[in-house]
Amino acid sequence: MSEPHANARAGDLAFLSGPRGHSLTVKLTPGERVQSMHGVIQHEDIIGREWGTQISTHLGTIFTILQPALDDLLRDIERASQVIYPKDIGYILLNLGVGPGARVIEAGTGSGALTVALAHTVGEHGHVYSYETRDKAQALARQNLQHLGLDARVTLHLRDIGEGFFEQNIPAIFLDLPNPEDYLAQVRAALQPGGFFGCILPTTNQVSKALEALKQHAFGFVEVSELMHRYYKASAGRLRPADTMVAHTGFLIFARRLAEGLHAER
Amino acid sequence: MSEPHANARAGDLAFLSGPRGHSLTVKLTPGERVQSMHGVIQHEDIIGREWGTQISTHLGTIFTILQPALDDLLRDIERASQVIYPKDIGYILLNLGVGPGARVIEAGTGSGALTVALAHTVGEHGHVYSYETRDKAQALARQNLQHLGLDARVTLHLRDIGEGFFEQNIPAIFLDLPNPEDYLAQVRAALQPGGFFGCILPTTNQVSKALEALKQHAFGFVEVSELMHRYYKASAGRLRPADTMVAHTGFLIFARRLAEGLHAER
Amino acid sequence: MSEPHANARAGDLAFLSGPRGHSLTVKLTPGERVQSMHGVIQHEDIIGREWGTQISTHLGTIFTILQPALDDLLRDIERASQVIYPKDIGYILLNLGVGPGARVIEAGTGSGALTVALAHTVGEHGHVYSYETRDKAQALARQNLQHLGLDARVTLHLRDIGEGFFEQNIPAIFLDLPNPEDYLAQVRAALQPGGFFGCILPTTNQVSKALEALKQHAFGFVEVSELMHRYYKASAGRLRPADTMVAHTGFLIFARRLAEGLHAER
Amino acid sequence: MSEPHANARAGDLAFLSGPRGHSLTVKLTPGERVQSMHGVIQHEDIIGREWGTQISTHLGTIFTILQPALDDLLRDIERASQVIYPKDIGYILLNLGVGPGARVIEAGTGSGALTVALAHTVGEHGHVYSYETRDKAQALARQNLQHLGLDARVTLHLRDIGEGFFEQNIPAIFLDLPNPEDYLAQVRAALQPGGFFGCILPTTNQVSKALEALKQHAFGFVEVSELMHRYYKASAGRLRPADTMVAHTGFLIFARRLAEGLHAER
C-alpha cells in the first residue's frame, strides 16, 4: 500500500478491472506477466502508465488499471473467509479512537481483514497486536499483511487470550470472537483506564450475554447498534436501490473501561 | 486530541458525563473550573486522576471523566449545525483511501466535522485542504480545529471552487456541496490520475444529476449507497432496537478519475 | 365505516383536515357542530357536500373533508395508547389468512386497533373473538368499535386466556401479549388443525422464548420477521427519505398448528 | 380458496410441503394423484385427513399437508413473473380502504397477484375491475383466478387505460404501471370524489414524475414510502437476521382525489 501517485511504478499494487466484474490485484514486477482467461498482460506494459487508463491483453481484451483502495483490498480478503465488512470497519475504526500512532489489540486475527484496516490506520508509528489460536488462520493473515507491506506494523500472537494479553495499558481492544463475555477480565487487565472496547456478534443471544458481562466488569457508555448498507443502481435516469442486499453481518458493541464498581451510561 | 493515556493531564481534552445525558468537553487548564447547573468542578481536581473514574461537583453531583473519542467530538460539532454523521464518516474515510500521510481536499468546510475526521486520520505527516465560501462557517471550523489541536494539519481556503482548486495531483477529493455536478472539471484538474472522488447528497434528484455529470467527465467505478444506522437498547434481558432512528442523512457517491473518454464500471 | 360514496351523508364518519396537520374525525349528525381552535363548522354544512372538497369555519379557516381510511382511523386509536402499527397490521391480516367471513381470535384487546382492522376485514359475515383482562382497556376498545359501527362483529371477553379460550376450531389466533409462550397449549386447544398462529413481540429475548415454546407445542412453518417503514418527503424536485423514522415496533412471528410431534420447517 | 376447516375435502386447495423447501399446491380431486421427484401421493389419501398432519409418498418421503395461506398462493404466482410482494400487498389493501363488499379498479393485471389479493379481500359481495393490454398476461391471470375460485369476483378488461376506464364512481384505483402520470385524468374520471389512489414504482425518477402529475391533477394527502422486510433465522438460541434480504421492490404512493384546484397536504 504505497502512497497514491499519478503513474504506476514497479513494486506498486495494481488493481486490474476487466469485463463483467472480472478483476485482480497484482504487485508490479518487471519481467512478470498477468495471466487470465482474457489473455496476457506484461507488467512492464503497465509500469509507467497513468492510473485510470486502459490496457489491452494480447487477445485484445481491455482492462482499466487503478491503485487499489483499502476497500478493494478488504473485498479481496473477504472472498477468502467470513470477515468484517467495510461498512462495519469504518465505524469500528472511528469508535475505537484509532488513528496515526495508535496502539491497538485485536482478537482473533482471522484472515486479517480488520488487521489490515487497523495497520493502515495506525500508520508506521503505531502498532497492532493481533491474537489468534489457529495457526492456519494466522499464516493466511501474515501472508495478506506481507502482500500489502503492512507486516512491520503488526505483532501476530498465536495464543489463547483466556491466558491473558502480553501488552498492558493499551488504549483500544477489539474482539471478533463468539464469546467476548469470557475474556473481559483479561481485557480490563490490558486496557488503559477509560480505554475503548469493541466487539462484533452475529446473534442477539450473544449480544445479551456480552451486555450482562460488560456490566459486571465495570464497562460503561455501552452502545449497541447495527449498520445496514444499501447500494443503488448508479443510473441517472433509472435510480433505484439494488434488488438485494446484505441483511446482517453483526451487531456492533462499544464500551469504555470505567473504574471498578462504576456503571455509568451515556 | 492527545495520545490516549491512563491519567488526565493538563492540556488534555476531558469528556465529563453527568446525570441524564448531560455532558461537556473541556480542555484541562490549572486554575480554571467547570461551571454547570449541577455545580462546580476544579480542573485541578481532574488532573492526575485516572480516566474512567468519577468526580463530584461541590453540590455532590457525580460526573464520569473520559478522554473523548473522535465520535464524541464529532457529536459536539454536530450540535452546532447540519453535519456529516459518524456512520457516514467512517465509510467515507475508508472509500477515499485516506490514511496517515495522505493529502486530501474537501469542499465545503462547513462547521468542520469532516475536516476534523480527515485531519485526525491523515496524522501530522498528512494534510487537508478545505474550501469554503462563507467566512462565518470557516471561522467556526477554524475554532473547532484549534480547540482540538488539529489546525496545523489543515489549510482553510476562503474561495469558490468554481474558480478551481489551488492544489494539483491530489489523491482524494470529497465534496459536501449541493451541486457537485458543477465542479467536476475543477475536480479533474486537481485530482491525481486514478484518484478517489466522493460526495454526499440528500435528494435523489441531486444524485441523478451527479451521476450524469460523472459519466460526462470520465469518472468510473461509480458506487451509490446509503448507510442506515440502528441503535439498540443496551439491556441484556430486554434487548430491542431503539424506538426511533435517523432515517436519512445522505446518499454517498464514490468514483475514480479515469483517463478522458473512458467509462469503466465495476 | 359506511361504504365509500361520493357525497357526505348524515351518519357518516368524516375526516376533517385543517392547517398544519390539525385533523379530527366526527360522525355527521344534523344539529351538531364541530368546535376547534380554528372556529366552528356546522355538521349540516358538511352533509350533502362532495368528499374531497373544502369548507370554512366561521373564522375563515379552511378544512378538507374526506371519508376516513382504515389507516386514518387506526392512527386515531394509536394516539391513545401503544398499539400495533398500520405497516404491521396489513402484513398480519395477510399472514393469518383473514378475509370476508373469517372467524379469528385475538388477545389482548388493548385499545382495539387490531380488533378494528380484523372486524373490518372479516366483514358482516365473519366474527372476531377478543380477550382482555383489564376492564378499562376493554371499555375503550368497545367505545372505538361502537364509534366505527363494528361492534356487532366482535365478541369482547373479559378473561385471562390462561384459563383457556371459549371457542374451538378457530382458523386463526393472534396474541399481542408479552408472554405468548405461556398460552400455546390453550392456543392449540382452540385452533383448527393446520390453523394460523401469529404474535408480535418487542424484544429479542421474548422472541427466543416464543420460538422455544412453539417448537415444544408442535407448531411448524415458523417465520420471524420485521417490517421497517420509511416515509419520503413527497416533493417531485427534492425527493428524499424523511429525516427520522420509527426504528422498531415489534418482531412478527407466524406459525401453523401441526399434528402433535411434528416440527416441519418451510 | 374455501373457508378454513379442520379436515381436507375434495375440491380444497392443499399445500404439500416436503424436504428441503420442496412444496406444491394441488386441488384435491378423487382419482387424481400427485407426481413428484419424491414419489407419488393419491389425492384420496389426503382427503379426510386433518390439516397439519403428514403423509408419505410411495417412496417413503414425508410431506406435511396444510390449507394454503393467501401468502403461499401469492408466492406461487410470484415465481411466474415480477409481481407485487406480500409485504407491500398488505399495506396496499389497508391504504386503499378495500374490505368486504368494496369495488376497486387495478391496472395492469399482470400475472394477477394483486388481483387475487383484492378479490380475496372484497369477498363475494365486492368486485374487482382489472385492466391489461397484453392478452397473454391476462390469460395467465384468468387461469390463476380460476384455479383459486376467485374469477366470479373479477372483470378482466383487455384495454389500454389511456382510452379511459369503463366504470365510474369507484372508491379506489391502483396502478401497477411504469407511467401513472399519463393516466391521472382517466383515474379522476373513474374515481369517486375523495377516493383512494395508489401506485407502485421502482425508480426515484418515476416517483418524481408521478408526484408532479398528482399535484397538477388535484390529488392531495400524498404519501410516499417504502417497506423493508427483514426475515430472521427462527432459532431460539441463535436468533439473528437472515444473511441477505430483498433490498427493494418499489416505492408506494398513495393519494386522495380532491376537488379541482385543491392541493391539501396531510
Layout of strands and helices, then pairs:
The structure is a homotetramer of 266-residue chains.
Chain A: E1 13-17, E2 23-27, E3 33-36, E4 39-42, H1 43-46, E5 54-56, E6 62-66, H2 70-80, H3 86-95, E7 103-107, H4 113-122, E8 127-132, H5 135-147, E9 154-158, E10 170-175, H6 184-190, E11 191-201, H7 204-216, E12 219-233, E13 240-241, E14 244-246, E15 251-257
Parallel strand pairs in A: 7-8, 7-10, 8-9, 10-11
Antiparallel strand pairs in A: 1-2, 1-6, 3-4, 5-6, 11-15, 12-13, 12-15
Question: What are its keywords?
Answer:
266 residues; 15 strands; Rossmann fold; globular; four-stranded antiparallel β-sheet; homotetramer
Explain what this protein looks like in three dimensions.
The structure is a homotetramer of 266-residue chains. By secondary structure, chain A is an alpha/beta fold. In chain A, helix 2 packs antiparallel against helix 4. Chain A is globular, with a radius of gyration of 21 Å. In chain A, 26% of the residues lie in helices and 32% in strands. The two termini of chain A are 38 Å apart. The model of chain A has no long low-confidence stretch (mean pLDDT 92). The longest helix of chain A is centred in the middle third of the chain and has 13 residues, at 135-147. Chain A has an 8-stranded mixed beta sheet, with helices on both faces. Chain A has a 4-stranded antiparallel beta sheet with strand order 2-1-6-5, covered by helices on one side. Chain A has a two-stranded antiparallel sheet with strand order 3-4. In chain A, 53% of the residues are buried. Chain A binds chain D through residues 202-205, 230-231, 237-248, and chain D through 202-205, 230-231, 237-248.
